[in-house]
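Fold this sequence, please.
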Amino acid sequence: MLAPGSQVPEVVLTNQRGDTVDLSSLRGRRVLIFFYPRANTPGCTQQACGLRDVAGEVGDTVIIGISPDKPAAQKKFDDKYTLGFDLLADTEHTVAEAFGVWQEKVNYGKRYMGIVRSAFLVGADGIIEHAWYKISPADTPKRLLAAVAK
């Protein structure tokens, strides 16, 4: 698991429009990276829409969502809720593993691997300022607002 002060792992993934997004190209700006299990599910929708709603209050901080969904599913999610930020497809979960959010989960006694909802605020220098593992959908925008206000 990553902690504040850690170098952010490399992130190069395809977004909902089919464009390649390389996190290193955003150096010089703060970036919120949030991991969510699946597009268009209630918790993920609450989290993404909450971030959309506070995007105008976080200055030039870039918001990026990452899930195992394919770009087409990400595009439907973005189109339906007019999110306005990149949603990256980590279909092989390599980035999720690098961030320590691809973990074993249990639901109704069934064990499986999946995304643990988490968020990371990365400083302009590429160093993680905040790491919020197992964050609730409602707390993600609140924590972001509090962190950028400092």
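The chain has a mean pLDDT of 96. The first strand starts at residue 12 and ends at 15.
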